[in-house]
Amino acid sequence: MEDKEKLDAYLDQVDELDEEILEKLEKRLALMKDIAITRKKLGYRITDPERARRKIDEITEKSDDELEVYGRQFYSSISDFTADYQRKYTEGETDLVKRIKEARENTPKLFPEKARVACQGVMGAYSQEACEGIFKRPLITYFRSFDDVFEAIQSGECDYGILPLENSTAGSVNRVYDLMTKHDFHIVRSIKVKVDHNLFVKPGTKLEDIREIYSHEQALMQCSGYLEKFKNVELKKYVNTAGAAKMVANSDRNDVAAIASYECGRIYGLECLDEAIQDSGLNYTMFICIGRDLQIFPGAYKSSMMLTTPHKPGALYNILALFYALGINIVKLESRPIPDRDFDFMFYFDIDSDVWSDSFIRLMNTIQSVSDDFRYLGSYIEKA
Fold it and tell me: CB of 224 within 8 A of CB of 169?
């Protein structure tokens, strides 16, 4: 038999085995459904993790050494999606899914044009630009810190808050991610803001006069290439770019500068020595708009969530496999250490999935049971 004929014969055998596997899988799922229904009638827990773990160990023992890891992985996957199948027939919709469906129905059909909005910084901050890109007539209150923005939402002082989450060149705003683990909120919209940094001084100050340059930590990082030419100049972190511009404008010194937006220079009467000094011309910052209540406005296709995983091998893999099985695309996966907890990490997910789709509802109905400390942050539209 020629090699081509051998290959065709092998493939035919694989096809036959695949059909047998599918047939037996269907029979197994039907039995597991009956088992789950019976366990529920008896008042038992629907799934039996201890038995599943013993079965995985038995499979491992029976496997050849070379195939041990594959057998363990294969049975673990079967065990996980079987549990999902059982819950579908015994537990119905979770409270989370009921909340999501209620929010879809009760949220106003139009996003508000006017609202009380909390922004971190002062007038001219990039958060103001993000805010005005989301709301047509915002009533902005400025707060000193990101924490204050969260507090303003929780207390009801403001309806919504604007927070930077990630920059295309400098990466994630870690402070915001850390605060997200401590506060209750929901994301209702996001927006990308083009960031152009400029070097500002008080009128009359020359480049050679500058001894200190102030700006937000992220802005300094985004302009690191340009700043290399200032050999004897001290770079100073400031709470935000607009605040740095305001501080320079109010200072009695003529040897300080600020990196901020062009709008800041106009507002505070500063002179621009250099324009567009960021390292990348494609410099964008992603801002999120948060609110206290869960609101899902029409057209929502992007969703965010945070979770921790059990401390066992394959825990994160099993969660990722769930996204894969449902055909849901993960567009962002971020891990952050949980403050005040040694070696515990929170995983942040952004996904693309129509909030009205069956796959999204199935994900929300299942993911809480396979993760620890799960938090659904909201579904929303992202403005470009």
Answer: no
pLDDT digits (tens, 9 = 90+) for 29-42: 999 999 999 998 99
Q: Closest Cα to residue 189, out of 284, 300, 99, 100?
A: 300
Q: Which of 164, 159, 80 lies closest to 121 in space, CA to CA?
A: 164
pLDDT in tens, 82-119: 877 887 788 778 899 999 999 999 999 999 999 999 99
The one-letter amino acid code at 158 reads C
286-298 pLDDT, tens digit per residue, is 999 999 999 999 9
Is-above-0.70 flag for pTM? yes
Q: Tokens 């088992």 appear where? A: 35
